[in-house]
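Before the break, one more example. Copy the sequence into your notebook; we will annotate it together after we see the structure.
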Amino acid sequence: MVETRRCANPKVIVTRELPDAVMDRLETLFDTTNNRADRAMTRAELAAAMADCDVLVPTMTDSIDAGLIADAGERLKLIANFGAGVNHIDLKAARARGIIVTNTPGVLTEDTADMTLALILSVPRRLAEGEKLVRSGQWTGWSPGGMLGHRIGGKALGIVGMGRIGQAVARRARAFGLSIHYHNRHRLPKVVEAEFGAQWHPNLDEMLGAIDILTIHTPLNDDSRDL
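Here is what the structure looks like once it is written out:
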């Protein structure tokens, strides 16, 4: 399942297959165990890895809870998460053990915003339905009322969580003629609101009554769980 090359300390264990350039560089610099088979580790395998490494490189598929952290070896000093979110890692437990947790904030902001806008376009324009109709062989040609959708220009977009990704979505949405509404824990500076022509709603229910499309960009934590 794994391929190991011993180079030099510290010992690094990577839980999933990362891009080749990353894995090759890790193996050059450190005593690295890479999961070339890309099979998600079991809890027992994670526990064994955390008991025998200096650095763990997990991904969002790995739940690093308080129990695993409590049983980790004394040599584990860094959890270098491959991804922006850290909701799958118990940060409080890591802090109590003196284990540093790092992530990659901002690296996927533009990509996530692109995909969000793709989804916003695909639903009212019925892109997935049309693609399935063509592939099934049931499409018989154009007709005036066939597969009619809705334009998004002039619609109101509500954004829950107006951080880096929410603002990147707003920037794209403005180009498509959407008006911007947002709900955030804190109101943004007026200069930022002016950039997007955004209206802040301190009450989420109030915003929901004023919009046509909703997109959510919040981290998963105790405040947002079951939102």
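Residues 109-122 form the longest helix (14 residues). Strands lie at 3-5, 11-14, 31-34, 55-57, 78-80, 100-102, 156-160, 179-183, 199-200, 213-216. Try to locate both features in your own notes.
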